[in-house]
Predict the structure.
Amino acid sequence: MLAATAAARPHAPALTHGDETWTYAQLAAAAARVRRFLLSRGVAPGDRVALLIENGLPYAAAFFG
């Protein structure tokens, strides 16, 4: 769903936290970086991963990654 929305509306605001807003393209790119990092560490799709991250935009990237 994120990939489809990012492709259809890349410059639309996706998330705002405090004074910072990410577009769908920024969110998708951040999620892809998290995904690549996890894959490089041997985490496979379907594996469970614990997150210890403050609420904010990086949390959303980790969630979607």
About this structure: Residues 2-64 form one domain. The longest strand covers residues 13-17. The longest helix spans residues 24-40.
